[in-house]
Structure formats: C-alpha cells, structure tokens
Amino acid sequence: MLDQTHDARATSWVESANLEEAAFPVQHLPFARGDGRALVGIGDQVLDLTAVAQVKALPVDSLKQGCLQGLASPAARRELRHWLFEQLTSSTSWLAQNRQFLGPTPGLRLPFEVGDYTDFYASIHHATRVGSMFRPDNPLLPNYRWVPIGYHGRASSLIVSGTEVHRPLGQLKADDAEAPVFGPCKMLDYELELGLWVGTGNSLGKPIPIHQVRDHWIGVSLLNDWSARDLQRWEYQPLGPFLAKSFATTVSPWITTQEALAPFFCAAASHEPRPLEYLWDQQDQQEGALDLQLEVQLRSPQMQQPQTVSRSNSKDLFWTLGQMLTHHASNGCPMRTGDLLASGTISGESRESAGCLLELTWVAPGQPRQPVELEDGSRRVFLQDGDEVILRGWARREGFRSLGLGHCSGRAIP
Ligand code: MN
Fold first, then answer.
1. Whole-model pTM over 0.70
2. Active-site residue 125, yes or no?
3. Distance, CA 276 to ligand 1 centroid (Å)?
4. In this structure, which CATH number among 1.10.20.10, 3.40.640.10, 3.90.850.10, 2.30.30.90 belongs to the domain 117-413?
5. Is the pLDDT of residue 134 over 90?
6. CB 31 within 8 A of CB 257
7. pLDDT value at position 329?
C-alpha cells in the first residue's frame, strides 16, 4: 500500500506544505467541500478541483459537480491522489503553470450530505470506566467483547467544525427528586471520536465481508459527539441514547483518506475472546487499527490560548473501523456513500487519556467529581456556556511526514 506518495523526502512548490509543522504536506492531500466546490488541501492553500475538472479530465467524475461521491471508488481515488501528488511536487507540471486554481480556504461544509449516521462504543477503556460509574462490580456488560455496540444517530444535526452548539433542553431528574423537570442540560459534555466515511455501499440483504471492507470506506475525520449527561442518565434505558445525543455532532470538514493513512495502520488491540468468524480477518487484525494521536483542548472566553486537557490514541480501540463497518452491514443493512460511522469516545487506560469530561472528572462512586483546572483559574466538571472544545489529531511515525487531521471545534452557547 506504500508508494512514492508516502516518501517523506517529497516536497511541493506550494511552500507552506513543506513547513515542518504543516498539517497538510503533499503526502496528505485531504479532501473537503466548499460551496459547490470539491477541494483538496495543500499547505495553507486549497486546490479547487471543481474548477480544475472544467478544463482537465480527472479520474473522479463527481468533482466537476462539486461533489466528493466519486471518491467512493478506491481505484479512482488512488489515481487522483497520484495525479495530484505528481502535479503538486513537480515544478514544471501543468498545475504549477496554472496556479490560479489554488487559493485560501473558503468556508467549508460537511464533506457529504449525510444520509445516515451511526455512533459506536468501540473503546473498551471508555466502556469500562463509564460502566464502573453505574456498576462498580461489573463494569463491562457481557456482550461487549462480542458485539461492536452502536446506536443509530441523527444525521440532521451533524454540523461542520466552527458551528456553535446550543445547550439542549430536556428532561432532568435529580436522584432524590420524585419527578423530572424540563430545562437546560446542566451536564454538557464532549466526546472525542473518529468518524469513518463510507465509500461504496452494499445493497439490501448483502453484507460486507470483513476481508473486503477496506474497499468500502474512504477515510476519516475528527468528530465530537456532544452529550447531555443528565438527559442521558434519565432517558437511556432500555433503548439507549436519544435526545442526549441528537442535538449536535460536530465533524471536521477534512477527510483524510485511507491512502494517506497507509503508513499509520497498525495491529488491532489484543482481543479476547477471538471475534466471531464474520469479524475476524488476519489482515484486519495485523493492520486494521490506526495509530493517530488525538487530543482535546478547552478554551473559556477568558483564555487566549486553548488548553490541552487529555490525549489518547485510536490504536487503543477494541474494534477496528473495518469491524464496525462489517458488523453494521452484517444483517444486510445497506450502507450508502457518504454515510458516517463514528468510533465512540476514544479513551485510553489512564485517566489523562479520557476522551470526555464524564470520565476525566470521575473519581469513585460516592465521591465528588474532581474538576479540570483551567489556566484562567476557573474549574470545569462539565462545560459552561462560552466554552470552546477543540479536537486535534496527528498521524506520526518515524521515517514519514506527519499529517494533521485538521481540527474539530465548537463553542457551547445558551
Ligand atoms: Mn459517542
């Protein structure tokens, strides 16, 4: 899967792509969508693929219409990547002579008009820590190690990074109260997640075999699954999350393709018991996980700079992205191009790697939560209005150019 597009020595005539801290070096080539425009990021610039497609035949046909649908074809996507790499590295290329197609990043939309959105629960550390709050003696439910747990989310409230998030209203019930009240959520939280974009789908009744699953997804984006913990606590049994989740989910506009991520795939986390046959594939076990360094930053209105409050890594997920996608389609449920599957909160084993405040401020049953201390002197157990949550992610590996996953941010407002 590695080729010349992963060569760390390659540089671009777009100078900003060659800076050491550049998130979008020429090895990355992440895709995004502006107003009627298909775009690819390079350094601090974007290349307008829709404009290029008017004058040049590109291997992905939907770009001319300003859509990214055509990226679903693995062959077309790879061919486009190679063409872009060639054009952006060679100073005598056609594009180097036609630099008017490059420009600053415009306002971005979600990469797709998402038909369906599903959220998984693939971090065993998250599931164990959250489970221990409710069932200290038996934190992990018996199905966890067998079934990739998920729920159907709401596509209509997916929002692009930078969009403000209204604190939701809902039913809240204090432990000692007899009846719930309706009002603003008091336990607003974020969840650090990775979103997976479905490429080629499957038809009704036809599952996606695990050994072919890589042909069915395009790439990943950072995702924040905002959560109202007090609404969630009261409503979630017996059918799982509902209004505690469906008010907003923030997604980064940038898709980092699986081709760009080729150097950063790694072995899946150790898995006991062995997954059932339909979820087990040797290649998926050996290189189905992604080594991405992720972090959560908070910024109150009083703070100039955001403050990192936790760090984790997607390689610690119990299920691979491929297993989640295969499982989702295993009953014959059709996946469609542009569907979004999220990983669930990505937490590590240590408390500092907790991907949400529910875990980060948790101490022990019966003990008060331990607030996060912010640099402006204030403290947070949950989010306050005005707080901004910023998710960041990096792919780093010795011998390769680092790739930045862009960022996924949102500010809580009343
Ligand atoms: Mn979630």
1. yes
2. no
3. 24
4. 3.90.850.10
5. no
6. yes
7. 98
